[in-house]
Each structure stands twice: as structure tokens, then as C-alpha cells.
Amino acid sequence: MQLQDIGNLEDITLLVNTFYEKVQKDDLIGPIFNQKMIGRWPEHLEKMYRFWQTILLEEHTYSGSPFPPHKHLPVNQAHFDRWMELFTTTVDTLFTGKLAEEAKVRAANMAYMFHYKIEYFRNQEK
């Protein structure tokens, strides 16, 4: 099967659903997500569709600030590394092209910034 680039909301939905299926089953990050998302997975997935649609397709359907809900998560660098590993593998399995590469770069930047900010707030509270 020839892989195509991310091109529409259907592709974003496939990416997000496939990625979060892996997240939910993952031994390291799954428990954190599953505990935080009890009864709210559909709502979270919808938000992620809109987020990535806005970022990658420049169709502005997401508004809000993505960081605050993550501020107090019990995570460290290993969690972000695993998140990136799952995300990158998911993108590479499903897509190839400019937007697929852009998705990985944006995810890496987001993971770096979230980790930095979480550590910053943790240190402020000591």
C-alpha cells in the first residue's frame, strides 16, 4: 500500500484515533491518560481532531490553551519520550509527506515545551 500525506480531516481522525488507541494500551503512559480521561475520551478525541486540523490543515477549528490541563500531570522525560515514540511510529505507519513530517516536528516541539513548563511549575511549587 502506497502511503499518502495527511490531507484532510479524515486523515487527522485516523491519526488521532490510532495514536490514542496505542496510548490507552501503553504500560507507561496509558495509566496516566486513562485515569485522567475516565468518561471523557470522546470529548478529548474531538478536541484533538480540531487541534491537529488547525495545526496541520490551517482550518481553524480549535481554540483554547492546550497546556493548562497538563500542568499537574505526574510525568517526566520518560513519559514524553514514550509519547513521542508512539506518535512518530503512528505517523510513519500511516502517512508520508510534508504534513506528516510537520506533524512530527510540531509534536516534538509540543512535548519539549510541555515538559519544560511542567518542570518549571513543579519547581515553583517547592
TrEMBL record:
Please give the CDD domains that the UniProt record associates with this protein: TrHb3_P
Per the record, the domain of life is Bacteria
Q: Which keywords belong to this entry?
A: Heme, Iron, Metal-binding, Transport
Q: Which GO terms describe its molecular function?
A: heme binding; metal ion binding; oxygen binding
Which Pfam families did the record assign?
Bac_globin (PF01152)
> What is the protein named?
Group III truncated hemoglobin
Q: Which organism is it from?
A: Flavobacterium geliluteum
